[in-house]
């Protein structure tokens, strides 16, 4: 009788742990990729702006669906609009790095009196809150690690050219 009771207890305990893990994983997925506002499905983005020289000018937008849109504007290998798709695990890496470097606690703007430097504007949504950082001068070096995640997508993904007439909103549906 004791053996039967112990066996049933063990089975129920293991099953409960297993179910709670699934609920936690689903809940995490739900919270991690939650929109900031109705109709806003932008998960993370990076934009590199012009300078007085030959600085690369482009932007990368990652949507909650995993769709990624790249728009190369000037002094880049790929000019025009391109798309690719990344996995939820790749998206979680952005969150992991952002949390590790304290991205959500950084200042909104790092700038100085030097006018000919390009700016890098990054953004991410974590737990339903969007954070945007404008960086041009005197930013924490840890911010480069977050920016590198975007830049790595340019070489690690297969990009497909898209027509300029295609709206980004349609790609996100």
Mean pLDDT: 83
Q: Count of DSSP helices?
A: 4
Residue share in β-strands: 25-35%
Instruction: Summarize the helix and strand pattern as letters.
Output: HEEEEHEEEHEH
Classify the helix fraction into a percent range: 25-40%
Largest beta-sheet characterization: 8 strands, mixed
Task: Walk me through the structure.
It is a single chain. This protein has 173 residues and is an alpha+beta fold. It has 2 domains: 1-32; 42-172, Mago nashi (Mago nashi protein), CATH 3.30.1560. It is 38% helix and 27% strand. The chain contains 4 helices and 8 strands. It has an 8-stranded mixed sheet. The longest helix is centred in the first third of the chain and has 31 residues, at 2-32.
Main features:
2 domains; alpha+beta; 27% strand; Mago nashi protein; 38% helix; 4 helices; single chain; 173 residues
Could you outline the blueprint of secondary structure elements for this entry?
Elements: H1 2-32, E1 42-48, E2 57-63, E3 67-74, E4 80-85, H2 88-101, E5 109-110, E6 120-126, E7 129-135, H3 142-156, E8 160-161, H4 168-172
Parallel strand pairs: 5-7
Antiparallel strand pairs: 1-2, 1-6, 2-3, 3-4, 4-8, 6-7
Helix pairs in contact: 2-3
Q: Nutshell version of this structure?
A:
The protein is built from 4 helices and 8 strands. With 173 residues, it is α+β, with helices and mostly antiparallel strands.
């Amino acid at each position: 009788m004791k053996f039967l009771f112990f066996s049933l207890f063990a089975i129920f305990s293991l099953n409960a742990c297993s179910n709670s893990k699934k609920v936690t994983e689903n809940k995490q997925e739900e919270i991690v990729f939650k929109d900031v506002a109705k109709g806003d499905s932008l998960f993370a983005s990076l934009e590199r702006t012009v300078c007085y020289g030959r600085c690369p000018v482009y932007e990368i937008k990652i949507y909650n669906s995993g769709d990624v849109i790249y728009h190369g504007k000037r002094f880049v290998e790929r000019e025009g609009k391109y798309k690719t798709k990344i996995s939820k695990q790749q998206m979680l890496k952005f969150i992991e790095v952002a949390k590790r470097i304290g991205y959500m606690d950084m200042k909104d703007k790092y700038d100085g009196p030097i006018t000919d430097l390009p700016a890098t504007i990054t953004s991410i949504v974590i737990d339903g809150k969007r954070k945007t950082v404008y960086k041009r001068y005197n930013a924490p070096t840890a911010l480069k690690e977050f920016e590198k995640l975007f830049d790595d997508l340019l070489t690690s993904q297969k990009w497909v050219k898209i027509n300029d007439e295609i709206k980004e909103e349609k790609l996100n549906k």
